[in-house]
Amino acid sequence: MGGLRGGSNLASWVVAGTLAYFLWVKPSQDLKREQQERAALAVASDPNRYIEKRKPIPDPQETGLIYGNKNRNSKTDK
């Protein structure tokens, strides 16, 4: 480990970690963020993108389920 002990060893690791962050990690994060922003702008400016123009048709059942007990009221059971 280069013969360093104690506080100087810790300081050298802090310096190395800081350099690694600013030389490798931060640039790659910035590049990813910039690519995501470019992709978002490309999607937003695409004139041929699909836009939903109809409202969805609601499910006529009381429970909203596709199958099961249809329109059965608990008041009629009493």
TrEMBL record:
The keyword Transmembrane is assigned to this record: yes
UniProt organism field: Rubus argutus
Keywords: Membrane, Transmembrane, Transmembrane helix
Domain of life: Eukaryota
Ranges for region Disordered: 51-78
Lineage of the organism: Eukaryota, Viridiplantae, Streptophyta, Embryophyta, Tracheophyta
Protein name per the record: Uncharacterized protein
Positions of transmembrane segments: 6-25
